């Protein structure tokens, strides 16, 4: 049996499908996040050693790193849906991009915020204009800019195209954020933020970090699908099938 | 060419342009926007003369000395090739210590001492419990020449 996935490119088909998927994504996300929090707090070492002798506060990593990963991943998703929308003129793609943006902005904010609270005890400052921190802040402004530009233009189709273009231009920040600390020659990139590598992490710390990432990822699906359903109803409010749904939901 | 193909080319060109911009920005990040200078660069006078800048490296073992007033500390910062003495009055971050990474912001005085107004601690990407970390040679800070390879090449030179 093959499922015709293109069927779901139509808002009519996607609306009920998303509705059925949201509880699964949301429930799994909750389980994974709770599991990661438990594992991160109770099954990991109390302190670190060697060249990184952090104390209990290193546990901010379980929120900070997954949120930072999601902030970059969701921007890629946002730009990809924007590009698909521009090329193929598909309505649902732009709606997808619209629905993902707030979740991405929230994760970027969480990454910056937890980073500040982590930087104070470890580095000795909440904020510094280090390349990694600065480029992540610009990513946050890009998300805000995308949302603001879209809501500033009344005509939805023009708003879609203008903000999609902004999203694609903003792609420039993703490699900069990544290489701001991971440039090939370690003597070339001087930064306060450590390089990112998963090779020297204790296995329990790594487990909690990766399951939290999966949890955040499923959470992103749940929230953007929920937001997408709202956007679909709003934009298709003139069509007959939306009226039917609204009438049916009003009755129950 | 159909309208859809035109748009595909247009978006493709936009992505290529964005990629080129990212490459340029990255090369600028590496060469022009120096977040901190290594002691070698400072001794070679590559730092901005009287202006405020940052020095980064490792705190040399057994050089951390508290001065008479009880607030000022002095320590040497090294990249394993050159060393700069640093003087700082204020509270040191939790991770600050001998042998650990540090980034100090301030001015260099005529006496060759770097007078810091802010000292930040820098740690690396190893997340290991102390008992494991002690058995691993993980000390590595960006901008610092790898201590193990350096000592290896030195012993090789001594053997020759």
Automatic annotation (TrEMBL), chain A:
Cited Pfam families: Cytochrom_C_asm
UniProt entry keywords in alphabetical sequence: Cytochrome c-type biogenesis, Membrane, Transmembrane, Transmembrane helix
| Key word Transmembrane present | yes
- Gene Ontology MF terms: heme binding; heme transmembrane transporter activity
Q: Which residues form the Cytochrome c assembly protein domain?
A: 28-182
Task: List where the protein spans the membrane.
Answer: 21-41, 61-88, 95-113, 133-152, 164-181, 201-219
The main location is: membrane
What are its GO cellular component terms? plasma membrane
Where in the cell is the protein located?
Membrane
Q: Which GO terms describe its biological process?
A: cytochrome complex assembly
Q: How does it sit in the membrane?
A: Multi-pass membrane protein
InterPro entries hit by this protein? Cyt_c_assembly (IPR002541), Cyt_c_biogenesis_CcmC (IPR003557), Cyt_c_biogenesis_CcsA/CcmC (IPR045062)
Q: What does this protein do?
A: Required for the export of heme to the periplasm for the biogenesis of c-type cytochromes.
Question: Which family does the entry's similarity section mention?
Answer: Belongs to the CcmC/CycZ/HelC family.
What protein am I looking at?
Answer: Heme exporter protein C
Automatic annotation (TrEMBL), chain B:
Give GO terms for biological process: cytochrome complex assembly; protein-heme linkage
Its localization reads:
Cell inner membrane; Cell membrane
Which of the residues are on side Cytoplasmic?
A: 1-7
Q: Where does heme bind?
A: 123, 127
Those parts of the protein on the Extracellular side are 29-160
Q: Where does it sit, as one GO cellular component term?
A: plasma membrane
Identify the main location: membrane
For this protein, the record's Pfam families field holds:
CcmE
One term of GO molecular function: metal ion binding
Keywords, A to Z? Cell inner membrane, Cell membrane, Cytochrome c-type biogenesis, Heme, Iron, Membrane, Metal-binding, Signal-anchor, Transmembrane, Transmembrane helix
Can you tell me where the transmembrane regions are? Answer: none
Tell me how this protein sits in the membrane.
Single-pass type II membrane protein
Record PANTHER family: CYTOCHROME C-TYPE BIOGENESIS PROTEIN CCME HOMOLOG, MITOCHONDRIAL
NCBIfam families hit by this protein: PRK13254.1-1, PRK13254.1-3, PRK13254.1-5
Q: Which family does it belong to?
A: Belongs to the CcmE/CycJ family.
Role summary: Heme chaperone required for the biogenesis of c-type cytochromes. Transiently binds heme delivered by CcmC and transfers the heme to apo-cytochromes in a process facilitated by CcmF and CcmH.
Name the UniProt record assigns to this protein: Cytochrome c-type biogenesis protein CcmE
What organism is recorded for this protein?
A: Thiohalocapsa marina
């Amino acid at each position: 049996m093959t499922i015709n996935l293109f069927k779901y490119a139509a808002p009519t088909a996607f609306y009920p499908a998303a509705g059925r998927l949201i509880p699964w994504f949301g429930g799994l996300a909750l389980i994974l996040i709770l599991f990661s929090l438990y594992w991160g707090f109770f099954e990991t070492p109390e302190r670190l050693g060697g060249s990184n002798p952090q104390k209990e506060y290193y546990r901010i990593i379980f929120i900070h790193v997954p949120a930072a990963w999601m902030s970059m991943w969701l921007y890629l998703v946002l730009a990809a849906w924007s590009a698909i929308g521009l090329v193929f003129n598909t309505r649902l793609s732009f709606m997808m991009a619209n629905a993902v943006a707030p979740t991405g902005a929230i994760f970027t904010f969480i990454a910056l915020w937890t980073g500040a609270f982590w930087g104070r005890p470890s580095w000795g400052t909440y904020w510094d204009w280090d390349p990694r921190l600065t480029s992540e802040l610009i990513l946050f402004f890009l998300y805000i800019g995308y949302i603001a530009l879209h809501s500033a233009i009344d005509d939805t189709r023009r708003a879609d195209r203008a903000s999609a273009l902004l999203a694609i231009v903003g792609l420039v920040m993703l490699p900069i954020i990544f290489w701001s600390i991971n440039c090939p020659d370690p003597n070339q990139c001087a930064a306060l933020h450590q390089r990112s590598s998963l090779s020297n992490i204790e296995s329990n710390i790594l487990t909690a970090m990766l399951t939290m990432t999966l949890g955040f990822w499923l959470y992103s699906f749940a929230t953007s699908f929920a937001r997408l359903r709202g956007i679909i109803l709003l934009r298709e409010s003139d069509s007959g099938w939306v009226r039917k749904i609204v009438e049916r939901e009003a009755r129950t | 060419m159909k309208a859809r193909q035109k748009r595909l080319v247009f978006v493709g060109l936009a992505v290529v342009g964005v990629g080129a911009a990212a490459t340029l920005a990255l090369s600028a990040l590496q060469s022009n926007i120096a977040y901190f200078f290594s002691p070698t660069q400072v001794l070679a006078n590559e730092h901005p003369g009287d202006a405020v800048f940052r020095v980064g490296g490792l705190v040399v073992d057994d050089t951390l000395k508290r001065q008479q007033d009880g607030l000022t500390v002095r320590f040497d910062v090294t990249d394993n090739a050159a060393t700069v003495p640093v003087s700082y009055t204020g509270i040191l971050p939790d991770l600050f210590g001998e042998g650990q990474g540090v980034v100090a912001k301030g001015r260099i005085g005529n006496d060759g001492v770097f007078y810091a107004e802010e000292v930040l601690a820098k740690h690396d990407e190893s997340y290991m419990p102390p008992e494991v970390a002690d058995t691993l040679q993980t000390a590595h800070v960006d901008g610092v020449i790898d201590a193990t390879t350096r000592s290896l090449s030195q012993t090789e030179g001594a053997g020759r």
